[in-house]
Specification:
The chain is mainly α. About 65% of the residues lie in helices and about 5% in strands.
Length: about 70
């Protein structure tokens, strides 16, 4: 999994209740992590790999997001 995907999963894990996945894509796009098109592509891949269901992480996605959180902690 690419670093952009790990950061995206972590952002989904940390998102506020009133934020949508599209909001997260736009936030990360504005931060220069990836383009909106790439964000949508990552999101599609997450769905295909059962990492997200609807607007939330699945158990598998949650584990990967927690792994990413540990990886990025200083």
């Amino acid at each position: 999994m690419e670093i952009e995907e790990r950061v995206f999963l972590l952002a989904i894990y940390k998102k506020k209740d009133d934020e949508s996945l599209n909001d997260i894509i736009q936030i990360l796009e504005n931060g220069g992590l990836f383009s909106y098109k790439d964000g949508k592509k990552f999101l599609k891949g997450f769905r295909q790999n059962d990492l997200i269901d609807g607007e939330n992480l699945t158990l598998i996605g949650l584990e990967k997001a927690k792994d990413a959180e540990l990886e990025f902690k200083l």
